[in-house]
Amino acid sequence: MIDEEKKTRRLALVASKGTLDMAYPPLIMATTAAAMGWEAGIFFTFYGLSILNKDKIDHLKVAPLGNPAAPPPLAAVPMGVPNFLGGLPGMTGIATAMMKSWMRKAKMPSIRELLEMCVEGDVQLFACATTMGVMGIKQEQLIDGAKCAGATTFLSYAADADVSLFI
Amino acid sequence: MQHPVHVLDCRQEVCPGPVIKVSRALKMVAVNQVVEVYATDPGAVSDMEALAKQTGQEIIRVQEEADGVRILIRRLR
Fold it and tell me: How many helices (H) and strands (E) does chain A have?
């Protein structure tokens, strides 16, 4: 049972990737932590910042190229399709549509819905200041609730964390 | 046994859905009241046990049923 003396647990995550498949893990971890009564914070850096970008949230993609774990694009195509075919025009769109359809069938919330759950659960959404500078992203391009922060802010937050993961 | 005051059907839902719904429900019921959840997620029992451990609640029953698992959780604090 819970130790009454123990302070509230804290989860600190770095979300560094902006593909549809890699947007899920940090948001699932953070919303689950919040559900357990933990504090949770995510530092969105480099391409991971796309997850907070209002115009990109609903358009994150997953590419089959370079991902040998990706299933063949069409059920009719036998296994053993060379991976480079994933580079053909339209393949990324097909893979993305496939993943979205799996998520819908599994009743998995969308990325936008998970972000709303994060905000509801008081998950800190740190937008990497360096990435914003390097990529020329403005605060108004990010969702409400995103806080511009540098590595120092995040490391100070993570220093008091019980669990820290880089995703 | 005390009757559950809040029943949640989380069948066909995957992580993190059931845990988040149960966590919300536990905040809504009074201390000592029971939340009943039906789930098919293969991780549901282990996740509910972890949720109970982390938040100081009590799992009072885990029952395998034909169409999933039934879990009763009592709010202790």
Answer: 5, 5
